[in-house]
UniProtKB/TrEMBL annotation:
Coiled coil: none annotated. It catalyses: L-glutamate + H(+) = 4-aminobutanoate + CO2. This is Glutamate decarboxylase. Its EC number is 4.1.1.15. Its cofactor is pyridoxal 5'-phosphate. GO terms for biological process: L-glutamate catabolic process.
Length: 452
């Protein structure tokens, strides 16, 4: 096989002729061996392992387009059932009535959530007889500077002012007081993140809602909250059932999650659910033909793979509430154990402990002068571990951290091996007189944000 490969494989232009499929497969397969090992990728929140049965199901659905609701009514039904299950899990007042859909991921889901907030604000302004004219009437969205980059995109693409609340001292995410202080009559909503991508901490959703209730009593401003639960909306229901963060809070208008993060499905699926039909303006919803009737859809994409939706339904059916709780509890146990052991190594100061999302961040103590977190990240990479180092956003760009994302498949045993390799890295680095790498080497970041 290898001896029959041509001396040069065309890379930048479409080849003139055909190639044997086995040979083409081998060439592509071999190049991809140079990618990092997904299971050792502690930078990503995205699922890197599924059961063989899920693989089989996905392969069976590779040819299905989720938009063809009329042609693939069963896939459409599975999607709707997943929405119902999530609406119930997140305590929607009427789970059967709560509108929602699958998306390509949380990014698309957040776009839809933001668009609904913007349209609701426009409609309310029109009803109040206020002519919305920029710049005086430019809508804004209040959120912490720690939001994922999809919210910067939402603001840029749909002409909304991103009102980012900077970090301050040890406050590394949005607080109720700061959120309210940034709101005015042009605020379309507040985004609360359940599980900051920077450090895995939960933002205080209930406090933010309560502070907005007070604001409404005092000023009449009625500002809805969207919960970006990309990770946390599939952790908190199982690990923190008593935490109020979802539709139990009347001010929460919508919730998104990434099915492909702690929803435990391979990349390519997200979910969004609105509290009720009032939270999703009807003029954003399009009707598609479905079994002779029509089905409402709200999406940026038209065609999308159906396999991820089938895989999500499989996972819900397969694990149920207890199964999800077992998987997420195990992840959290690994995260808290690993965090505490790393904290005890000496050079690190834990910023979070893995007890909210199974994710934690740590910085080096100020007395460590010979190496940086970027050096530690590079050393771990030599042993195959992908652990990102990055600096925090506005007002805390001085703070550089390593972040560990614990996912299904990072077992206690693997975590022990990681700890051994971290000890080895520190022994090597202790011989170094000065740091070799700074934030410019933060190859895991996306636009000054850690990858999620
Ligand atoms: C990952 C993440 C996103 C983006 O989600 P994708 O599913 O990757 O599009 C948005 N918000 C938060 C908090 C995230 O962690």
């Amino acid at each position: 096989m290898f001896a029959s490969e041509p001396p040069e494989v065309p890379r930048e232009a479409l080849p003139d002729g055909e190639m044997d499929p086995e040979l083409a497969y081998q060439i592509v397969h071999d190049e991809l061996m140079l990618d990092g090992n997904a299971r050792l990728n502690l930078a990503t929140f995205v699922t890197t392992w599924m059961e063989p049965q899920a693989d089989r199901l996905m392969a069976e659905c590779f040819d299905k387009n989720v938009i063809d609701k009329d042609e693939y009514p069963r896939t459409a039904a599975l999607e709707q059932r997943c929405v119902r299950m999530l609406a119930e899990l997140w305590h929607a007042p009427e789970p059967a009535e709560a509108p929602g859909c699958s998306t390509t991921g949380s990014s698309e889901a957040c776009m839809l959530a933001g668009l609904a907030l913007k349209r609701r604000w426009q409609q309310a302004r029109t009803r109040a007889g206020v002519h919305v004219r920029p710049p005086a009437g430019r809508p804004n969205l209040v959120m912490g500077a720690n939001v994922q980059i999809c919210w910067d995109k939402f603001a840029a693409y749909w002409d909304v002012e991103p009102r980012l609340v900077p970090m301050e001292g040890d406050r590394l995410h949005l607080t109720a007081e700061q959120a309210v202080a940034h709101c005015d009559e042009n605020t379309i909503g507040v985004v609360a993140v359940l599980g900051s991508t920077f450090d895995g901490s939960y933002e205080p959703v209930a406090d933010i809602c309560a502070a907005l209730d007070t604001l409404q009593r005092e000023t009449g401003l009625d500002i809805p909250v969207h919960v970006d639960g990309a990770s946390g909306a599939m952790i908190a229901p199982f690990c923190d059932p008593h935490l109020d963060w979802d539709f139990r809070l009347p001010r929460v208008a919508s919730v998104n999650t990434s099915g492909h993060k702690y929803g435990l499905v391979y990349p390519g699926v997200g979910w969004i659910v609105w509290r009720d039909t009032a939270a999703l303006p009807d003029d954003l919803v399009f009707r598609v033909n479905y079994l002779g009737g029509d089905m409402p859809t709200f999406a940026l994409n038209f065609s999308r793979p159906g396999a991820q939706v089938a895989a999500q339904y499989y996972t819900f059916l397969r694990l149920g509430f207890d199964g999800y709780r077992r998987v997420q509890d195990y992840c959290r146990d690994v995260a808290t154990t690993l965090a505490s052991r790393i904290g005890h190594l000496g050079p690190f100061r834990l910023l979070t402990h893995g007890d909210e999302l199974p994710v934690f961040a740590c910085a080096l103590r100020p007395e460590i002068a010979g190496y940086s977190v970027f050096d530690v990240s590079a050393h771990l990479r030599q042993r195959g571990w992908l652990v990102p180092a990055y600096t925090f956003p506005e007002h805390r760009t001085d703070l550089a951290a390593l972040r560990f994302v614990v996912r299904n498949g990072l077992t206690h045993d693997l975590a022990d091996l990681l700890l051994d390799d971290l000890r080895w890295a520190l022994t090597e680095l202790e011989r170094q007189p000065a740091p070799l790498r700074g934030p410019e080497s933060a190859s895991f970041a996306h636009g000054n944000r850690p990858r999620a």
